[in-house]
Structures are given as C-alpha cells and as structure tokens.
Amino acid sequence: MKITLLTVGKTEDAYLKEGIEKYIKRLKHYIKFEIADLPELKNTKSLSEDQQKSKEAELILKKLTPLDHVVLLDEKGMELTSSQFSGYINKQMVGSASHVVFIVGGPYGFDASVHQRANDKLSLSRMTFSHQMVRLFFIEQLYRAFTIIKGEPYHHQ
Q1: CATH code, domain carrying 128
Q2: E strand segments, the chain
C-alpha cells in the first residue's frame, strides 16, 4: 500500500520542514509515503470563497485516480484516538486499498465535488490548526499508527 498526503500550498517554516522530514524518514521503514503539494491559487482577492474552493477542487481531483481511497482531513470528520487511527490504517492495508490519499484543503475547506469523491473524512482535532502544522501533526500520527501496528514502544497508553 502507498499513502500520499495531498496538500494545497507548501510548508514554509524551517522548523516544520525539519519535523516533517524527520517523520518521513521514519515512515519509510513501514510504508511507501509521499507528500504531494498543489500550488496555492494566485490572485484570489477577486474570487469568492466558493470560487476558490472550486478552483482548488479542480487541482485536487486531477491528482486522484478512480482506485484511490480518499480521506479528507476535515473538521467535521470522524475523531479517532491514535490507537483507533492505527486500526483504521491497518484495515486499509489488509483491505483492497492500494493507495490511500489523505487531503489537506485550502483555507476555506473543500468544494462539494471533493466531498462527493471522498471515501472518508477524518478530523485531527476539534481545534483549528494552520495548514502548515497539520502536515507535521498528521505525519507524526501516521508514524505513531505504524509503531502501534508493529507493537513498537513509541506510543504509550
């Protein structure tokens, strides 16, 4: 199985990039993982929120294949503990999913067309985080999930 984190925009802060790289290196021992950054929209001041979401949706949907299992990182998604998330990942691995794509949307969330394409929605927290920080938090949780699956001592209950 391969996992992709598809994001709108790039990580700018060096300290976040460093943390992200740390966990990507660790993840390579468990799974094929990549981050795919879509370019941020330019000249958005003349666009409404819905227009921005629609344009982002076009970019997102072009990156997906019909066989991808798509999970939106969305504030209204299911809330899981780290152990429950590891179970979710394990279920995808033993199921028929060969490619799971987790998506971080733009500042206004997802267009209806992306919601319709999604297989699942996952909330990392009831709190709102910057799109920069979500990448690090998600990748750390993904790493944690694999250590739980493998019975390694990283996660403490």
Answers
A1: 3.40.1280.10
A2: 2-8, 32-38, 69-79, 99-104, 120-123
Residue 128 annotated as binding site: yes
Q: How far is CA 28 from the centre of its chain?
A: 17
133 marked among binding-site residues: no
**Domain assignment present for 131:** yes
Residue 65 annotated as lining a ligand binding site: no
The response to whether 124 counts as a known ligand-binding position is: yes
Its domain, for residue 31, covers 2-149
81 annotated as ligand-binding: no
96 annotated ligand-binding residue: no
Whether residue 154 is contained in a domain is answered as no
Task: Tell me the pLDDT tens digit for each residue of 45-88.
Answer: 888 999 999 999 999 999 999 999 999 999 999 999 999 999 99
Domain total for the chain?
A: 1
